[in-house]
Amino acid sequence: MRSEREMMELILNTARADERIRAVILNGSRADPEAKRDIFQDYDIVFLVTEMASFRRNPEWIDCFGERMILQTPDAMGDSPPRADGGFAYLMQFADGNRIDLTLVPVDTIGEGERDSLSVLLLDKDGVVEPFPPPSAAGYAPKPPTPKQFADCCNEFWWCCPYVAKGLWRREFPYARYMLDTAVRGQLLRMLEWYAGVKNGFVSGAGKYGKHLETVLEPELWKMLLKGYDDAGIENTWGALEAMGALFRIAAGKVAKHFGFQYPLGDDERVSAHLRHVRELPASAGEIYCPAAGLHGGAVAPKHGDGK
């Protein structure tokens, strides 16, 4: 595996030797002085270039970076609309384990759009790039939720939970797992991002897809989060859904209390009772609820004080 020094020299020497490349910017975790270093860190690189057409006409120009395991060019995939900055990305995973995420951006777009707070100017042949402030993760810190964002997150979480229950009762397992892992978990992670912000004053977040949550959550909450990733299977998925609901309730309650928001406890109680009811509903059932039993078939809703 090529060393960081070798990779940086390769990147800069490639830029120095090509008159079309006028500046080089390093983004991402390698630009963050606080980031933990490890062997899987990417090299997030921006080349500011005089024109794009000649690069696009000759896709082999990236061969200079080494033997590739796989390449992705997301801006050429599907019906991707043109980027606002006119850029084009080459995501290169190399056979030696290194990875470069390289984006070409027209040099004449300098100053347009918002700058990445994790940026270091490595090369500027013409002195046209305004100096960057010291890199920091401030631009990646979560923003406090608005009342509507909080309410929408709670509504979407509890609205999607019955889809999981329906899929499990029908034994449509791929559907149930998709709704659990995408819709329900997505809103849980969003709430946990705000929960992390409340804990640390919104100076840092939980990382992409919650990757830093183990360092943010209290041990008992971390165990609850892990419970939501239980092994596949009907019963385990029921348990994961229950654990995710309990964790969402705690995190949302703390966020609501901090900001003075109203947590929709009624939605929580009614949906939670419905989930328990469906879990016990016989596969041969002809009705979800017996008319005589009323809403939730007489099930007793849980009582939770957090976030009232």
Question: Can you describe what's shown?
Answer:
This protein is of the alpha+beta class. Helix content is 41%, strand content 13%. The chain has eight helices and six strands; from the N terminus they run H-E-E-H-E-E-E-E-H-H-H-H-H-H. The chain has helices at residues 4-17, 53-57, 147-169, 173-200, 213-216, 219-227, 234-259, 265-280, and strands spanning 21-27, 43-49, 68-72, 88-94, 99-106, 119-124. It is elongated. Mean pLDDT is 90; it is low at 296-308.
- Determine Rg (CA atoms, Å): 25 Å
Dominant shape: elongated
Total strands: the figure is: 6
The helix count comes to: 8
CATH first level of the largest domain: Mainly Alpha
Q: Order of strands in the sheet with the most strands?
A: 3-4-5-2-1-6
- How far apart lie the N and C ends? 55 Å
Question: What structural class do helix, strand and pairing data support?
Answer: alpha+beta
Q: Main beta sheet, described?
A: 6 strands, mixed
SSE string, helix = H, strand = E?
A: HEEHEEEEHHHHHH
Which runs of at least 5 residues are low in confidence (pLDDT < 50)?
296-308
Question: Quick gist of this model?
Answer:
The protein is of the alpha+beta class.
Question: Key terms for this structure?
Answer:
308 residues, alpha+beta, Beta Polymerase, domain 2, Four Helix Bundle (Hemerythrin (Met), subunit A), 2 domains, 6-stranded mixed beta sheet, 8 helices, 6 strands, 41% helix, 13% strand
